[in-house]
Amino acid sequence: MSATNTTCETSNFSIGSAPTVWVGGTPSVWIGCLSHFNAGALVGDWFDAIDADEVTVADVHRGSGRDGSHCEELWVFDHEGIPVSGEMSPHEAAEWARALTGVDEHLRPALRQWVASGDYVAEGTGDMPSIPDFEDRYCGEWNSFREYSEQLADDIGLLNDAPEELARYFNWDAWTRDLAFDFTTAPAQAGGVFVFRSL
C-alpha cells in the first residue's frame, strides 16, 4: 500500500467529491480515523482504493504523531476515480475499485461515465455496476451522437433497399432524435461522447 500520511485540523482540510470525468489510472481513497474525526482532527492518508479494505488503523496513524491505540473504525472521507459522491466504508471503496479495474483500462473512463450518468445497471441489490451489462450496452466513443446514428444506419442497412432518389431525402435529424430515446450519452474526456444502449 502506498501512502503519504496527512494529519490536519478539520478546518484546514476540504472533503469533497471526485471529478465527474476521472482521467487517472487507479482510483484512490482518503481513509481517516473516525475517532479522531469525531474529536475534531483528521488523521488519515491516501491509499489505492483497491487495497482500501486491507488498510489498518496502524496504516492510517503511521507518521501522524497521534495515538491510535484507542481507535477502531476507519472511514473513506474522500475519493478520486470512483463515480459516486459521498463518503463510504473502506470495504465499499475496494469493491468499487475492483469493479472499475475489472474492465480493460481503455474502457474504464466509459464505465465511470456510465455509472455517473445514473442510467446504469447495478449488480444484485447494491450500487456496483454490472460489467456484463456494461459490455452489452457500450457502443463506443463518438464525436457526436449524430455520428453514431449515421454509422448505425449504415451498419443495419437502413437505406440499402431505398432508391437513391428517395434516400437523399431521408430526415437524419428526425432519425437521430428518435433514436436518442433508446440510448444514453455521457461526455468523454476527448470532447466527444460515450454512447450506451438503454435496454
Structural Rg: 22 Å
Per DSSP, the total helix count is 8
Tell how many strands the DSSP assignment holds.
7
Biggest β-sheet: strands ordered side by side in the sheet: 1-3-2-4
Beta-strand fraction estimate: 15-25%
Structural class: alpha+beta
SSE pattern = EEHEHEHHHEHHHEE
In one word, what is the shape? rod-shaped
Low-pLDDT stretches are 1-23
Could you characterize the architecture of this molecule?
It is a single chain. The protein is 30% helix and 21% strand. The chain has 199 residues and is an alpha+beta fold. Strands 1-3-2-4 form a four-stranded antiparallel beta sheet. The protein has a three-stranded antiparallel beta sheet with strand order 5-7-6, sandwiched between helices. A hairpin with a 5-residue loop joins strand 6 (183-187) and strand 7 (193-197). It starts with a strand and ends with a strand.
Short structural summary:
This protein is α+β, with helices and mostly antiparallel strands and 199 residues long. It has helices at 34-38, 57-61, 90-100, 108-116, 131-137, 145-155, 164-167, 172-179; strands at 5-9, 28-33, 41-48, 74-80, 138-142, 183-187, 193-197.
